[in-house]
Amino acid sequence: MTERSSGDRLPAEAVTAIFELVDESRTAIYVASRDGGIIYRNREADQSLEKGVGGILLEEAVEDNLRSALGGETTRQLLELHGPPRQMLSITANTLPSGGAVARVEDVTERHRIDSVRTDFVANISHELKTPVGALSVLAEAISHTDDAETVKRLADRMIAESTRVARTVEDLLELSRIEMGSSETRERVEIGSAVAEAIDRARPLAEAKDVHIDVKSPERPLHVMAKRRELVSALGNLVENAVKYSDDNGRVEITYIGESDRAIVSVADHGPGIPNQDLDRIFERFYRVDRARSRDTGGTGLGLAIVRHVASNHGGDVSVSSVEGEGSTFTFSIPIGKSWGSR
User: Fold this and answer.
1) Of 120, 34, 51, 127, which is closest to residue 89 (Cα–Cα)?
2) CATH 1.10.287.130 placement within the chain
3) pLDDT on residue 205
4) Do residues 72 and 2 make contact, with C-beta atoms less than 8 angstroms apart?
5) Residue ranges of the chain that CATH labels 3.30.565.10
6) CA distances (Å), 178 to each of 103, 308, 313, in order?
7) How many of the other CB atoms lie within 10 Å of CB of 241?
8) What are phi and psi of 26, to 5 degrees?
9) Around Cβ 4, how many Cβ atoms within 10 Å?
10) Could you give the CA distance from residue 242 to residue 172 in angstroms, rounded to a whole number?
11) What distance in Å separates the CA atoms of residue 344 and residue 327, rounded to the nearest whole number?
């Protein structure tokens, strides 16, 4: 190995290779001279300038960090750009031996989202299990201190409801885990109409209790897909149950399924309160709820839409939502019809 002193100049080829390497980096790099002027940006940094208002805000934040670095500080800043799309950027800056400063900008949006989902998951599962278990303890203690038959029956009914809530949460967690890991269930030829009928049967008790009418619009000919029947019914069942839960008493839910090109498309529409725009990007996350208080009243676990998303993904499809506050929401579930995408 050839030794090189700090005063030696690098060969031109080495300088070119270093610049190419820095230019290929997915981290935006800014270099400032001693007087604070930016003398170098790599390709990623140049592209950040093309992001409209977000690019301007980023440039200002970088310049602030470089000025602090030139003053001898090592800086770290988390910058949130509301977009669209929303981004979380990590900015770090420090001085260079030459007297200038360097700032690095890394997109940590996905890392931040995963951390947020993990934190929410732990907090929510703790709440979902702790609340009914605590209620069961209180109810059991109340029963032990009364001999009144009517009071005992009322408290026992409450205990059954709370234990059902715990069981449903655990069942949904197991179902989601099974779907995420990939179940051993084989794909079969499933008629969409029969899967929709099973999904409606799951929601029928709640629909009858609220007097919600469920209308189905189907194509003239039967529509078949190659799918894992249990997963498909689970996904559609969650969509129908959600629509019924968030419908007013005496409301109406419309289910439409059609074959379009090479896909089967099922739409479930309600006329409930709708979903605020700021929540649309997150409603398919585990435990995410638009209205936590109302979710507790309706008995939701916050896992249903996460299950729907994973079932769609496992079948090579997708799920989307459109919503208008005060008017209702429409969820659209789509999967390929044929076998060309293979079995899983």
Assistant:
1) 51
2) 110-181
3) 87
4) no
5) 186-344
6) 44, 13, 14
7) 23
8) -80, -5
9) 10
10) 14
11) 38
SS3 202: helix
The stretches in the chain having pLDDT less than 70 are 1-8, 51-53, 117, 120-121, 124, 127-128, 180, 182-184, 289-301, 338-344
CB of 101 closer than 8 Å to CB of 70: yes
Q: Which two tokens stand for residue 130?
A: 């702790």
One-letter amino acid for residue 324 of the chain: V
Q: How far is the C-alpha of 321 from the C-alpha of 285, rounded, in Å?
A: 13
Per-residue pLDDT tens for 86-114? 889 999 999 999 889 999 999 998 888 87
110-181 has which CATH code? Answer: 1.10.287.130
In words, the CATH class of domain 14-107 is: alpha beta
Beta strands in 50-140, from DSSP E residues, in sequence order: 75-81, 87-95, 101-107
Give the gyration radius of the chain's Cα atoms: 28
pTM above 0.70, yes or no: no
CATH topology of domain 186-344: Heat Shock Protein 90 (3.30.565)
CB atoms within 10 A of CB 141: 10
Q: Which two tokens stand for residue 64?
A: 């602030």
What six digits make up the tokens of 319?
A: 């799920």
- With H, G, I as helix, E, B as strand and everything else as coil, classify residue 207: helix
User: What gap in Å lies between CA 275 and CA 327, rounded to an integer?
Assistant: 9
- Both tokens of 275, joined, read 């979903």
Structure tokens at 184: 């051993």
Cis bond before residue 132 (omega within 30° of 0): no
Query: What is d(CA 264, CA 226) in angstroms, rounded to the nearest whole number?
Result: 10
